[in-house]
């Protein structure tokens, strides 16, 4: 099910954040872009590579007025323990963005990424605009890690589109030419490339 163009389902849940367990609400981030991503489970193999890869680019997301938020079906206590586990031991120590607990699996269901037979979420990623509308989504199967660079590129494309009203072609990167969303603009673009 595609959630593109729809209001992001509200999230009110516990989260592990900077050493504390806090109340998290998605609506608290209206006015900012949000990259909200699901991963299957704490204390696994591929998941920490993704969480650390997002952390490595956190400053670049923040420069773009973008909040990163992770989520899995684990408890906030499990998240907190994982955050205290050193990276060398498979932990995610050093992660400074919130990790939401979806222990009841209601969030994964509302975003349609729950793998019901296993009770865990697929690797769903949702780019939510400043008004709380989902503008991009991608869902990977469990063994397939995501590209953080692609998530960052999609944030850039959305910001560029909102600022200039132009559309971004395949493999577009920040600083490259985009296209006017008219037939004339398309023909001009393809004539130059």
CATH class descriptor name of the largest domain: Alpha Beta
Q: What is the string of helix and strand elements?
A: EEEHHEHEHEEEEHH
Q: Count of DSSP E strands?
A: 9
Low-pLDDT segments: none
Give the biggest beta sheet.
7 strands, mixed
Over the alpha carbons, how many angstroms does the gyration radius reach?
Answer: 18 Å
So how many helices? 6
SSE blueprint and pairings:
Blueprint: E1 12-17, E2 20-25, E3 33-38, H1 46-56, H2 58-63, E4 66-72, H3 76-83, E5 99-101, H4 106-110, E6 114-115, E7 120-121, E8 123-128, E9 134-140, H5 148-164, H6 183-192
Parallel strand pairs: 3-4, 4-5
Antiparallel strand pairs: 1-2, 1-5, 3-8, 6-7, 8-9
Would you mind describing this structure in some detail?
This protein has 193 residues and is α+β, with helices and mostly antiparallel strands. It has helices at residues 46-56, 58-63, 76-83, 106-110, 148-164, 183-192; strands spanning 12-17, 20-25, 33-38, 66-72, 99-101, 114-115, 120-121, 123-128, 134-140. The strands form 2 sheets. The protein has a 7-stranded mixed beta sheet. Strands 6-7 form a two-stranded antiparallel ribbon. Strand 6 and strand 7 form a beta hairpin. The two termini are 35 Å apart. The model has no long low-confidence stretch (mean pLDDT 92).
């Amino acid at each position: 099910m595609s959630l593109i163009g729809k209001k992001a389902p509200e999230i009110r849940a516990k989260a592990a954040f900077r050493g504390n367990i806090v109340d998290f609400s998605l609506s608290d981030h209206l006015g900012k872009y949000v990259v909200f991503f699901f991963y299957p489970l704490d204390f696994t193999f591929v998941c920490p590579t993704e969480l650390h890869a997002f952390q490595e680019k956190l400053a670049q997301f923040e420069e773009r007025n973008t909040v990163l938020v992770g989520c899995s079906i684990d408890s906030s206590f499990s998240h907190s323990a994982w955050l205290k586990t050193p990276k060398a031991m498979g932990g995610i120590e050093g992660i400074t963005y919130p990790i939401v607990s979806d222990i009841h699996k209601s969030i994964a269901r509302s975003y349609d990424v729950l793998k019901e037979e296993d009770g865990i979420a697929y690797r769903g990623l949702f780019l939510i605009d400043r008004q709380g509308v989902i503008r991009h989504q991608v869902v990977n199967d469990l063994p397939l890690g995501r590209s953080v660079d692609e998530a960052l590129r999609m944030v850039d494309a959305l910001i560029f589109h909102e600022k200039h009203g132009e559309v971004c072609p395949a493999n577009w990167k920040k600083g490259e030419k985009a296209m006017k969303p008219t037939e004339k603009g398309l023909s001009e673009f393809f004539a130059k490339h």
